[in-house]
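#data-curation
PF: Archiving a pair of folding outputs for the training set. Convention for this channel: one message per protein, sequence first, structure tokens after, nothing in between. First:
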Amino acid sequence: MFLTNYLMKTLDLTAAAALLHMSEDALMRKTRAGIIPGCKPGRQWVFIEADLIEWMRAQYSQTSKTMPKHWSPTSAGRSGTSTSATNDAKLSDLLKQVSRNRPGRCRTA
């Protein structure tokens, strides 16, 4: 058991970010927040490759639960009804500008 833990591959911040396809800054923020497993025993971040792969695999199940049904590749082209009118109405509501009174010192050309 001890020998297998000793042989685990560790990655630095750059290599771990490359493995996860994210920026080093994003990886550092998520690691500090406790979202992604990693530690900083000295001056550099250290990640265990097996832990990162396990974390990525756990994200697969969470992504499929939170993904809207119309984004699912299995639902593409099966519904037979168009929701574009509904989506257009929702988009219009989101894009409506909120009119606000401008401060007295504000001038427009």
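PF: Second:
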Amino acid sequence: MSEDTAEKTFNSFAEFYPYYLEEHSNPVCRALHYVGSLLVLSLLGYSIATSQYQLLWFLPVVGYGFAWVGHFVFEKNKPATFKYPLYSFISDWVMLKDFFMGRFRK
């Protein structure tokens, strides 16, 4: 089995995050992740503030919708969340934090 088709194993989030960033090397893909994550936070805040809890059903659609467009159209790969859902979910928020901290600016 080649390295491309072999299932990678990670013993910690610290091992996984560099892999996650490799899978998000396209800046448009990353930007779509940021948009999706910020919309998730906005929708979450709005639904709680207005007690419109039925809107919470849209959180995965909004969050993953933007991210998956980034992967399939711009990055041309499968989202890491398909194989590593928990680490990927955490990584989305760490990547957003890193963006706001200036990590991805040149």
